[in-house]
Design goal:
Length: 68
Amino acid sequence: MTLKPIKSEADYAAALQEIERLWDAEPDTPESDTLEILVTLVEVYEREHYDLPSPDPIAALEYFMESR
């Protein structure tokens, strides 16, 4: 995958797919560098295009406690 800004939902989906493929990359390899860059690009895209409300603090604590 060629690294480029994420400008559309198609770019976003492709980046997520590539992240999944690279998820278990060994540290300090070109693959792990690519993974790190893609994650950063996805974070920026999500921040700009998706309104994710903060969780209710009580619900977040309950979820955390139940999942452990």
